[in-house]
Amino acid sequence: MEAEGLIAHDVLAVVLRITSPVPSVLLWQRAREPQSGRWALPGGRLGAGEDVEASVRRHLAEKVDLAEVAHVEQLSVFSDPDRGPQPRRVATAFLGLVPSDADPAIPGDTAWRPVDALPPIAFDHGEITRAGLDRLRAKLSYTNIGFALAPDVFSISELRRLYAAALGHHVSATNLQRVLTRRGVLVPTGTTAAPGPTGGRPAALFRFSEHTLRVTDPFAALRPPSGAGAV
Amino acid sequence: MEAEGLIAHDVLAVVLRITSPVPSVLLWQRAREPQSGRWALPGGRLGAGEDVEASVRRHLAEKVDLAEVAHVEQLSVFSDPDRGPQPRRVATAFLGLVPSDADPAIPGDTAWRPVDALPPIAFDHGEITRAGLDRLRAKLSYTNIGFALAPDVFSISELRRLYAAALGHHVSATNLQRVLTRRGVLVPTGTTAAPGPTGGRPAALFRFSEHTLRVTDPFAALRPPSGAGAV
DNA sequence: GAGGTTTTCGCCTTCTGGTCGAAAACGTTC
DNA sequence: GAACGTTTTCGACCAGAAGGCGAAAACCTC
After folding, report:
1. What is the pLDDT of residues A19-68, one digit of tens each?
2. Nearest to B167 among A45, A48, A222 (CB)
3. From CA A33, how far away is CA A122, in angstroms rounded?
4. Which of A202, B32, B176, B225 is least enclosed by beta carbons within 10 angstroms?
5. What's the CA gap between B10 and B35, in Å, rounded?
6. Strand C and chain B: which residues 149-178 have CB closer than 7 Å?
7. Which stretches of chain A are DSSP H helices?
8. Greatest distance between any 2 Cα atoms in chain A
9. From the CA of A194, how many Å to the C1' of D5?
10. Residue ranges of A 185-214 with Cβ closer than 8 A to chain B
């Protein structure tokens, strides 16, 4: 088969959701060889008549309610000839994001696993998970990708906790609010949340202005002067 | 064949080189059907025992001296079922960069074509070329990727011309020098170039401190405080 | 030496991000 | 209802990064 140059093409998804201290990734436990008992990313064979994005959405729908997946983007191709058993398989990996307040129904073989305590992982899916987490962290700082992690409306403290968990380090609420509002990605709703049981000033509620990915400012330098004459 | 779910996998390369007013892309003219006479990106079939990056380098070596290609990175997968004639093919696209002073030998069917006046393009290779150019432009502002466009040593004016051509808009020499040196990607050589035939102060020469890709500052905001506890 | 050309450098302004502490708005307790 | 603790919000201040401009430097030719 491979002698003809034809190769099986898979799609895989690193689906992340921000949970209490660290993000969690959606994994399912393999029941059959190879790698029986190990945990794998959702995915499957690229079918005829669909492109890779349509394919990953189709396979994802078997493990999680697609309506809860707020963002999907292509990560990278994994094609090491030894990345799995023969016959050879090439995989296109995707990153998927689920808001922290969503709790979609998942099958019995599937679970959210915190990324700092992963179970035994099948094939190279650990490396792929790492790539997904890296991509999320990079994009948090220069895009509005937070819209895919947060509930529809939220307080700045909630958003701060989400960012801190995703990034793995402390985030200042003051700065987060100022930066995101200045960039226009955060808009106040005018409403406030009820204070917690221990009191405290009621938090103002915000929402993301857009729910599609937008690059806010990767161009610290070398910005077009005014009217950019695109080539 | 596709009934078995096995698909031909190609690799393609958008090889860019900054030329006088606008960048040029390496294309070759097809001599056989399908799309005979049209211009296509270098590439070919993914072989057994090689990953996609090794494969694209192998195919690229047929069209250009690989030693002149200063940088190669994966772009994206193109998998629309109708992107070419049957049987179906999936392609992993790469971006390759050649310094402006290099002039590698190329075969007779191959040529550098300015991106603002492309000949008739085969298949979806026009879209892929566009993706490569977009990637280069984005990375120019927050990485040191300029090392792959410029000669070993160069003046600030030369570099300014390269950046302006790649970005498609005016770039200030003052800012370019200050930003790149502050980020540590540009270091002075201490030498100066000979003035032009019409005179002028001799230009100080610089070089890139590193010749491998490094992200300089995508994290305008949300930087880790000090010791980042990585998860 | 005068005039033209190209590059370099310093100054100024603006904007962004980081830090800190005070003030606001709640609930609880005495 | 006044004092206290808690949480959030807001303003002030500071450092650094970047854009713009013009003067100065260093060369050429005539």
Report:
1. 978 999 999 999 999 999 999 999 999 999 999 999 999 999 999 999 99
2. A222
3. 11
4. B32
5. 17
6. 155-157, 173-174, 177
7. 52-60, 125-142, 156-167, 173-182
8. 70
9. 18
10. none
